[in-house]
Amino acid sequence: MVSAHKVTGTKSRVKRVNLGHRLFTSPRWQRPVGENFILTWSQWYALRNYLKASLWIVPLIALVSEQLVLRTAFALDARVNWIPAWPLDPAGTKTAVETIITLVLSFIVFTFGSMLVAIQIAGGQLTPRIIATTLLRDNVIRVTVGLFIFTMLFAIGVVARIEPNTRGFPLWIVSALGLGSVAAFLYLIDYAARLMRPASIVWQVAEDGLAAIKQVYPIEYNDAGAPVTSRTHLGAPNQILYLQRRSRIVLAVDLKSLIAEAKRLNGVIEFVPCIGDFVAIGEPIFKLYNCGGAIRKRSLRGAVAFGLERTIEQDSTFAFRVIVDIAIKALSKAINDPTTAVLSIDQLQRLLRDVGRRDLGNEQIVDDAGELRVLLRTPKWEDFTQLAFREIRFYGAENLQIARRLRAMIDNLMETLPESRMPALVQERDLLDQAIDRLYSLPGDAALARIPDVQGIGGASRT
Fold first, then answer.
1. Over 80: is that where the pLDDT of 460 sits?
2. Are 424 and 385 in contact (CB under 8 A)?
């Protein structure tokens, strides 16, 4: 995860100083002393996501912890009288500890080698997006590797400090860590085998997507004729802030900071791109309406996190994107795995049901006093339905499993979602019928493809 990049003032006010091959903007070097040492929200966001997705963090913590535990164990060795005597002589003890070191080192090599191979296979057969969104963020893998590192270093420290008067407290700890590492290795193999299954991957992505949907759309939908809020006409903006230095994807926005800044300026701040949009250098980021007073540009640019790749945390459509990518990859002629696509449609149905029951018209954000402060565009119901249906139908409608499963998803959503969600679903159903008419030349196959089936093929008898 890279840190946020800078949003400076209007194009006409940006002064650039060319120093060799680098390009600097003068406002960065005109900040007050000490301001550069205060991390903004976007920098904290980038740091937190980097730590969550970095495999080396837990082993580093294990290295530091091992030194503390090792010294504590030898310091307590002469004071602990309740443990049984160590049964081996010094030569046997050294052999046993060295065996644990060799064993754990083999675990580490095997784990990292297998994980790299698994990441390559999963990225090739499913989608590369799962590497950053699921595999590198899995705490079981990180903690297990940390345990291996801790055990190996602790055993090395013990074998280097064994003396004839050592009573056995550190040695019992080494033996317990060795047995724990063996158990953890066996569990890791079983866990990794389950984790890499397509059903587990799409389920985890859907879980992350549900959390993002709940954060972006916290209010449940009221179908009592819920009005569509029209955008307030604010006139022309009195200032526009542009992206400078690096082109990046918008990952997240700190709404609290934007509301506070708009309230301080007694105006309205519009965040121009959507979460997940790519923004090139020179494109507008903020439009300020009716804002008076000095604008704190560092606060504004620090409220937006940029990166090289989309993340699910605030990007409510990215979970859909990842699952759809898995589905259409499975439907490719090279892989030809429609059952994996059916598993993906299962989770898309789950996500669409949750989205359809939430109020999606939260573009206008007000403060505690009810004053409009921030305009933030978010995906609407049609965006979600088109993302969930169109590409899968385009690549997979010729497969009976996919046509029937899509029909079952449409029927389920039409039965469970509010009436106002129906037009988009009816449109997708009509497009599916047109695709079936075009793709199936035999009337019997076309009739079979129109039967809704939650399993794709095999469960239509319940209909």
1. no
2. yes
